[in-house]
Design goal:
The complex is a heterodimer of chains A (333) and B (187).
Chain A: H1 2-9, H2 26-45, E1 49-50, E2 56-57, E3 76-77, H3 82-90, E4 96-103, E5 115-124, H4 128-141, E6 148-151, H5 152-160, H6 169-178, H7 192-211, E7 218-223, E8 233-234, E9 240-248, E10 251-258, H8 263-279, H9 290-298, E11 302-308, H10 309-316
Helix pairs in contact in A: 3-9, 5-7, 6-7, 8-9
Chain B: E1 3-5, E2 14-17, E3 20-30, E4 38-45, E5 51-57, E6 61-63, E7 67-77, E8 81-85, E9 92-96, H1 97-100, E10 112-118, E11 121-126, E12 130-137, E13 151-156, E14 161-165, E15 173-177, E16 182-186
Protein name (chain B): Elongation factor P
Domain Translation elongation factor P/YeiP central (chain B): 69-123
Main location (chain B): cytoplasm
Chain lengths: 333, 187
């Protein structure tokens, strides 16, 4: 293997001592502790209950682009506390939040760590404009500038020159090629709808995201239905997912929306996700059956938000990567 | 053929793109929360030195380039080829003028230099950043001549010509910065 051949004679291959030192400075770690305390104080004042649903789950994430970390026979580590919190909502817990570590396999990079801190909260009886306003109040209290707001349609057209409602997969593909992504990147065997979703996704990740929120955090509202996740789709002549994503300095910081409460629709989305996973050649893992059951019993109308806490700390402190905001980044864990 | 998956990408990895060998300079993992993951890389073409950006879907694989970076001893130039040797194995490699390029003007027989081999053929030669070379020819400095900013040309033992201060005389050994082609000090 060439990598080995060159490594054997190149200084790169010198075996280094393990790094025991933290990734963050003591000053940053103290700032981090204060940030966590400030978040808890914010929700305590607003009578939102802190939950700690388990990180270890009997089912794996279904979304095609999320991969759970497996723990042998014990199950999988959660990619977010969403399902547990929604089951608490169905049990009548009322407003609830969780501040905990979540895990995503294969996500390592400048702004990604396979284990990271997530703040997630739900507000029964609220819609997404109200939770978006609450997110802004939280961010401002924690030291961020007030939010800019923009519609997905508008920002997509401004940055790609395309109207996603009229564009076909081939047009999106051509635009992505202009952003450096070769047409061959498309996974084989996708149907038309999934091809469209693949390229729409690619443009969001490669063109939209990096350009958003340069000065102040920017909330992009009302997403294409194919990118709904588990939020509700507002029907009409031009249906949209009642969902927002907040970007700051090109980094995705939070997303939220009005939650889907209909169990039948949830099961349809699970089935479709499973089919997409099969089309992508990904393993089909046990599906969560407790959340649909909770929704059969009755999930109250609610809106929720998930926010990346390490990213928030890094951006507040002006870092250009996640590692200096973490006690020990993945390469030192 | 060996391949690398995007999750093995890191700075310094040598990969083959469109038939040319590249080295990865930067690798950025890009992934929206709900979306497809990509690796955005900045790569330098080892043949042309040009830097370009490419994006891969995470999980895709690319061919590895059989590139090695070796410290070789320069032996001699026969006018057509430059000959180098691995000091440990005594294995020899030869490189044409076009590959040696500017680096050749700083090399004396026995000197070590960095040679990048692709498929076991030299791809580029890099002289050490600093070399010590004797002055084989320079005119005596003329006191009071300031028109040339207090410097004059000098030919070094390898044939390279650099600007040196007026006080430098033939036979002196000089420390030279090969990246700038500049005199640093007396060695």
């Amino acid at each position: 293997m060439p990598g080995t051949a060159s490594g054997a004679r190149h200084p790169d291959s010198v075996v280094t001592e393990p790094t025991w030192q933290p990734s963050a400075t003591p000053e940053t770690l103290r700032r981090r502790a204060r940030l966590l305390a400030d978040i808890r104080a914010f929700f305590a004042r607003r009578d939102v209950l802190e939950a700690d649903v388990p990180a270890l789950s009997a089912a794996a994430a279904q979304e095609p682009q999320l991969d759970s970390l497996a723990c042998g026979d014990a199950g999988w580590l959660h990619t977010s506390p969403e399902f547990g919190l929604k089951r608490l909502l169905a049990a009548g817990i009322g407003p609830v939040y969780q501040l905990s570590h979540v895990f995503r396999a294969g996500e390592t990079g400048r702004w990604h760590n396979p284990e990271f801190s997530m703040l997630e909260w739900y507000r029964p009886g609220w819609g997404y404009p109200a939770v978006l306003a609450e997110t802004e109040a939280l961010l401002v209290e924690l030291g961020a500038p007030p939010l800019a707001r923009v519609g997905f349609d508008e920002v997509f057209t401004r940055l790609t020159g395309l109207d996603w409602r009229r564009a076909g997969a081939d047009e999106l593909q051509q635009r992505a090629a202009g952003a450096g992504l070769a047409p061959e990147s498309e996974p084989a065997g996708l149907d038309d709808a999934r091809r469209f979703e693949f390229w729409l996704d690619a443009l969001v990740g490669l063109v939209l995201g990096p350009d958003l929120g340069r000065s102040a955090p920017c909330a992009v509202c009302d997403w294409p239905p194919s990118l709904a996740g588990l939020t509700r789709i507002r029907p009409g002549a031009m249906p949209v997912a009642e969902r927002f994503e907040i970007y700051w300095q090109g980094v995705e910081l939070a997303n939220g929306g009005t939650e889907l409460t209909d169990a039948a629709t949830l099961r349809e989305r699970f089935d479709r996700d499973a089919a997409t996973r099969r089309a992508l050649g990904k393993p089909c893992l046990p599906v969560d059956r407790a959340l649909p059951a909770a929704m059969d019993a009755g999930l109250p109308d609610c809106a929720g938000v998930a926010l990346g806490v390490d990213r928030l700390l890094a951006l507040l402190l002006g870092f250009d990567s996640l590692a200096p905001a973490l006690p020990f980044a993945a390469d030192r864990s | 053929m060996a391949t690398f998956s995007t999750n093995q990408f890191k700075g310094g990895l040598k990969i083959l793109l469109d038939g040319d060998p590249f080295t990865i300079l930067e690798n950025e993992f890009v992934k929206p929360g709900k979306g497809q993951a990509f690796n955005r890389v900045k790569v330098r073409n080892l043949k042309t030195g040009r830097t370009i950006e490419r994006t891969f879907k995470s999980g895709d694989t690319v061919e590895a380039a059989d590139v090695m970076e070796l410290d070789l001893q320069f032996l001699y130039s026969d006018g057509e080829f430059w000959h180098f040797m691995e000091p440990n194995s005594f294995e020899q490699h030869q490189a044409p003028d076009a590959v040696v390029g500017e680096a050749g003007q700083w090399l004396r027989p026995q000197d070590e230099c960095k040679v990048i081999l692709w498929n076991n053929e030299p791809l580029s030669i890099e002289a050490p950043n600093f070399v010590s070379l004797a002055v084989s020819q320079t005119d005596p400095g003329v006191r009071g001549d300031t028109s040339s900013g207090g410097s004059k040309p000098a030919t070094l033992e390898t044939g390279a010509v650099i600007r040196v201060p007026l006080f430098i005389e033939e036979g002196e050994v000089l420390k030279v910065d090969t990246r700038k082609g500049e005199y640093v000090s007396r060695a």
